[in-house]
């Protein structure tokens, strides 16, 4: 069977099937022979027959032989289907898709090789131990496609394990990142709260200082207004100077606010600048009020 490239196991399976096919063929041939013998025994009892009688006997024989041959062909086709069913079922266990080439079934060269094999290698007197050969095909457990499938399954399992390990690493990193984010958010809230409390204390102190300054300036302004009416010109000069000081203080305050936003640790400097600005603003307000009172008195 070297021309077909079969291994020893598959060659034994082919021999087993050919034994089965030969036995079925021999049985069917015996049945056909019995049809002719029955005709001889039952109808050919006389020495002469008419044409109609011969035609009738041949028609009957034709029906019997036709039925036997048709039954054998049908049975052979169905048997081949069952054989293919075994092969396909076994292949599907390993996720294989077998294909057949119907045209090869009429390949005369291959058919001649099978006939030659049956004449030479497949001896009629070489009996196969039917008990040692199972009627069903045994699954492939090693070599060939099974080995390739096993390797592919192992590779896929290894890739799956790697992906699972990578997933666990990513999950750990994600949890760590979430913890860091939560800590940063809590630190930011605490810092904002601390800044808010400190700024509230600064504003309260500034208001207290400003109230004292305003009270002092009001008293001084009243004394100055009652002492010398001619101090109007000096007051106007003070007002102009105060305006210039206000512009400078405002500029300094703007710079101080920017600096305060950048460096929170310089809160003391910011507070001093704001106190100066507030005092100047109150002085300007008081001077304006005094000037308005003075002009109204005029």
UniProtKB/TrEMBL annotation:
Record InterPro entries: LZTFL1
GO cellular component: cytoplasm
One matching Pfam family: Leu_zip
Primary location recorded for the protein, binned into one broad class: cytoplasm
Localization per record: Cytoplasm
Keywords recorded for this protein, A-Z: Coiled coil, Cytoplasm
Gene Ontology biological process: negative regulation of protein localization to cilium
Entry annotated with the keyword Coiled coil: yes
Residue ranges the record marks as coiled coil: 146-194, 239-297
Record family assignment: Belongs to the LZTFL1 family.
Function: Regulates ciliary localization of the BBSome complex. Together with the BBSome complex, controls SMO ciliary trafficking and contributes to the sonic hedgehog (SHH) pathway regulation. May play a role in neurite outgrowth. May have tumor suppressor function.
Record's subunit section: Self-associates. Interacts with BBS9; the interaction mediates the association of LZTL1 with the BBsome complex and regulates BBSome ciliary trafficking.
Name of protein: Leucine zipper transcription factor-like protein 1
């Amino acid at each position: 069977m070297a021309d077909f490239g079969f291994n020893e196991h598959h060659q034994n399976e082919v021999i087993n099937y050919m034994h089965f096919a030969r036995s079925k063929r021999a049985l069917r041939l015996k049945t056909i022979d019995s049809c002719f013998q029955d005709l001889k025994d039952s109808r050919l009892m006389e020495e002469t027959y008419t044409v109609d009688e011969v035609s009738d006997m041949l028609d009957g024989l034709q029906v019997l032989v036709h039925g036997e041959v048709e039954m054998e062909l049908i049975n052979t086709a169905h048997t081949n289907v069952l054989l293919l069913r075994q092969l396909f079922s076994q292949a599907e266990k390993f996720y294989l898709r077998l294909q057949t080439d119907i045209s090869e079934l009429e390949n005369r060269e291959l058919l001649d090789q099978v006939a030659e094999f049956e004449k030479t290698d497949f001896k009629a007197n070489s009996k196969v131990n039917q008990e040692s050969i199972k009627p069903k095909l045994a699954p492939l457990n090693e070599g060939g496609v099974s080995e390739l499938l096993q390797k592919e399954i192992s590779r896929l399992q290894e890739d799956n394990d790697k992906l699972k390990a990578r997933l666990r690493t990513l999950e750990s990193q994600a949890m760590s990142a979430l913890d860091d984010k939560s800590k940063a958010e809590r630190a930011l809230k605490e810092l904002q709260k601390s800044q808010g409390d400190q700024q509230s204390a600064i504003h309260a102190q500034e208001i207290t200082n400003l109230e004292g300054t305003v009270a002092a300036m009001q008293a001084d302004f009243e004394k100055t207004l009652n002492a010398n009416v001619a101090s109007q010109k000096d007051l106007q000069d003070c007002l102009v100077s105060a305006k210039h000081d206000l512009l400078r203080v405002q500029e300094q305050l703007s710079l101080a606010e920017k600096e305060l936003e950048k460096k929170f640790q310089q809160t003391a400097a910011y507070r001093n600048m704001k106190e100066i600005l507030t005092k100047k603003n109150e002085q300007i307000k008081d001077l304006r009020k005094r000037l308005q009172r003075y002009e109204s008195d005029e």
